[in-house]
Write a structure and sequence with these properties.
alpha+beta, seven-stranded mixed β-sheet, 33% strand
């Protein structure tokens, strides 16, 4: 293992999962169990382990925090604003997918106190920079022809 004399950023992943519920478009969010932003809603996601790829991490985090697995996710953007995470310098790789099962039950797990589907038009206040993350995922989904 290398040791460098300068700090390095942490790397995370975020999963933006959409579904159609009747005529409404919804996004899957989790309620954060821990600080920062404890009890606020956010996209499912978390830190990449040292021995996994970003793709493996986003699927692991999505399953751990919501119970959803087996969905095709597409990388759509990287977020790297210097102060996006109050704990330390964090860069996040964001993925989006369209979920076909409109009846899927979700449940919070791991560091997610809750998980739930939210109508795009009625989102709660979001943690971190996740308002931007959701908006960009919507643009990506529209470009892909999902909705």
């Amino acid at each position: 293992m290398y040791t460098y004399p300068y700090p390095r950023p942490a790397v995370t992943v975020d999963a933006l999962v959409f579904r159609k519920a009747g005529t409404e478009l919804e996004v899957l969010l989790i309620k954060r169990r821990n600080p920062p932003f404890k009890d606020m809603w956010a996209a499912p996601g978390g830190f990449i382990n040292i021995d996994e790829t970003p793709e493996d991490a986003v699927h692991r985090e999505l399953q751990e925090e919501t119970g959803i697995k087996g969905i095709k996710l597409y990388q759509y953007h990287t977020y790297g604003a210097v102060n996006r995470d109050p704990r330390h310098r964090t860069i996040s790789i964001a993925y989006a997918g369209m979920y076909g099962n409109s009846n899927q039950e979700v449940a919070g797990g791991d560091d997610a106190a809750e998980a739930g589907w939210f109508k795009i038009r009625k989102l709660p206040p979001l943690a971190f920079d996740h308002n931007e993350v959701v908006a960009d995922a919507l643009d990506f989904g529209e470009a892909k022809g999902w909705f």
